[in-house]
Each structure stands twice: as C-alpha cells, then as structure tokens.
Amino acid sequence: MKKLFKIVLTLGLVLTLFTACAQKPAAQEPAAQEPSETKEFPAIAKEDIKVGVIHIGNPADGSGYTYAHDQGIVGMQEAIGLEDSQIIRKNNVNDSDPTATETAILECIEEGCNIIFGTSWGYMDTMEALAAEYPDVIFSHGSGYKSNDANFNNYFGRIYQARYLTGIAAGLKTESNLIGYVAAMGQDNSEVTGGLDAFALGVYSVNPDAKVYVKVTNSWFSPEEETNAAKALLGEGCDVIAQHCDTPNPQLEAEKAGAFGIGYNSDMSKDAPKATLTSAVWNWAAYYTWAVENAVNGTWTGENYYGGMKEGLIAISPINESIVADGTIEAIESAEKSMLDGSFNVFDGVIETNDGSTVGEEGKTLDDATITGGINWYFKTVTVK
C-alpha cells in the first residue's frame, strides 16, 4: 500500500462514502486471507487503463451504498488522473440476477475495461467464472470470500471499528435507553451481525443500561422495508435509530419523529441534519486508488484487501456537535486513539452473548476469520424485534 494516497483520519474530515453485500456463509475465509501463490500482471500504461464498475443502485441517488462506492471511484479517478472516458459505469445491476450481472461485465470487457470492480456480494460467482474465462482482465469483488490469487480478488474492511465509535455517540445520547438498529440481514450473516455487535459494544462501553433492538429487512436495498423497520423501532420507544442498510430512510424517519440517528455508508447528516449524530462511513477511494495504481505500476498480484482506519478506508463522519450529548467527542477520540495505537480492539476478551453463552478469551481478540465469517451471535444487550 506504499502507493496509497494519504487520507487524514480526523473527526472533522468529510468522508462521503459502504457495504451492501449479501449473506455470507459462516464457514468461509475472510477477505484478509493471504494468497498462497500470486501472479504479477504487466504494467498497464495510465492512458490505456480502463476501469469498469458494476453498481447495484444508481449513484445519482446521492446517498447510501452505491453513492459511497461511486465517490470512491471518483476519488480514484482524481488521484490517478484518469479521463472520464476511462471510467465505465453499469448502474442498477441486480446482484441476484446472474444473467444481468454477466451482461454488464461483458459489456465492460467489450468496451475495453482491463480492471472491473463488482461492488455487491451477489456478483461474486459470476465474476469468478468470468475471471477464469478472461485471465488478462482484473476482476475485483467487494466483500465476499472467493479469489484466485491471480486476476480475481476480494476487498472489504474493518467497518466494525467505525460501528463501535458510533455506538458511543448513540449510548450517550439515548434517554429512553432503547436504541433501534435497522439490519439488512439476520444473525447468520457475519458482516451485518458483527457490525451490530460492535455498535452494541460501543453503546455498552458508555451506557451499560441501554438495550439495542434490531429489526431485520432481509434485503440489502429495500427503501420501503427500511422505512417500515425504522417506524416499528420508533414505535417500540427507541429514541436513536442506527442502520446497516442502503438508504437514508431510517434517518429520515428518526428526524420526522423527533428522534436521533446513526447513518451508514455516507454522511447522512445531509439527509437528516436534525437527527443524524454521525455516520459510519467508507472511503472506498483508498482501495480503488491502491488497486488501480497497482495495475498501472505492474504491481498487481491478486492479493485480497482488508483495510481499516489506519489505511484510511474506514472512519466516521463529522460529529454533529449541535445535537450530540456532552462528552461524546472526547469519548470517541479516546476510543479511536486506542484503536489506532493497537492498545484496544473491538472484540477483545470474553464477550457475553444474548443467549447466556460467551465467546472469546481473556487477553486475546477475535481474529479476522472469526470476525468476517464466524460472528453469528448477538451481544448480550441486543434483542430481535
């Protein structure tokens, strides 16, 4: 990552940027898995590079998952200095439709793309198959677990770090001690569940009396279901609404109800300025720049990517100082500093689950394989509604 442009991680930096993937089997390897054998590609001259990106939604929506990824593509384009004609976008590609996915990818190849990013989980199998068919094209899949150590890799990050920090803001803000969480997938999905648990741990660190109620939509992108889930949680008495879903609808519903919220993917204070305390955000430009620079420099090896705050991939958006509770900024800064210097990891030690069992060991922290594929339990303060 020596070529990765530097991104200053401060709470005041605006990072408009994440993760709608689909359900991940618990037994799979993490995105951080080191390749056993790699193949280097010849350098592609900057003027010859052509980048394809397959989106599940439309970045023109201006918020949420696809917008966050596309802002990363924009950031990469600016950092490397590519022309608009060198970026090929395929929007609104249904990730549950292999034919639509294949068509979009083949169109990118026909238009000359030599590196293609698939941003949603459901693209994984189709990308794997086409990578074998087109070995001279680089295929890079957002999330997932498959790769071939050559022209097909996966990329994701430690979003749970930002989740924990946003949990601090929620835990200090709630007055009812009931916090809602709109989740795209249920307990068997480690990505969503791990993020929820990290959030709940953050809440617990400052407010052990608070409970987290989760409502599952079973969809990565369902504006109506996300709205309905937020309404239901508000009806349960939740006065802060967090989310792992694509749209800003939960934040909009929180604002309508006079409650507060925690956004995701991009800074959702622009959508609900009176409600959003902060958002867990992705700076996908960190990865996209790294990947395309490797292709240009001839240093692409097919290795998987799993970044975090240190790499500039993960952060929280600027804290809304006008509505957060007193002490929020100081508490978040302290926790963030401990994460960055390595003295604290979110899943440290023995953790109690909501079924009375425990996970983890004293003096140890959960490894990447467990975090990305083995968190199928809820923290003790979480209740499914």
What would you say this structure looks like, in words?
Helices cover 32% and strands 17% of the residues. It is α/β, with parallel strands linked by helices and 385 residues long. It has two domains: 46-157 and 283-313, 3-Layer(aba) Sandwich (Rossmann fold); 159-281 and 315-384, Response regulator (Rossmann fold, 3-Layer(aba) Sandwich), CATH 3.40.50.2300. The strands form three sheets. The chain has a seven-stranded mixed sheet, sandwiched between helices. It has a six-stranded parallel sheet with strand order 2-1-3-4-5-11, with helices on both faces. The chain has a two-stranded antiparallel sheet with strand order 13-14. It is globular and about 55 Å long. The model is unreliable at 1-38 (pLDDT under 50).
Notable characteristics:
disordered N terminus, 2 domains, 385 residues, 10 helices, Rossmann fold, alpha/beta, 17% strand, globular, 6-stranded parallel beta sheet, single chain, 15 strands, ABC-Purine-Binding
Anisotropy-based shape:
globular
Q: Give the low-confidence spans.
A: 1-38
What is the arithmetic mean of pLDDT? 90
Q: How many DSSP E strands? A: 15
Do you know the CATH topology of the largest domain? Rossmann fold
Helix content: 25-40%
What portion of residues belong to β-strands? 15-25%
What is the CATH first-level class name of the largest domain? Alpha Beta
Q: What gyration radius follows from the Cα positions, in whole Å?
A: 20 Å
Largest sheet: 7 strands, mixed
According to CATH, the homologous superfamily of the largest domain is Response regulator
* Distance from first to last alpha carbon: 42 Å
Strand order in space, largest sheet? 12-10-9-8-6-7-15
Label the structural class.
alpha/beta
Report the CATH architecture of the largest domain. Answer: 3-Layer(aba) Sandwich
Taken together, the total number of domains comes to 2
Secondary-structure element pattern, one letter each: EHEHEHEEHEHEHEHEEHEEHEEHE
In DSSP terms (H or I, runs of 4 or more residues), the helix count works out at 10
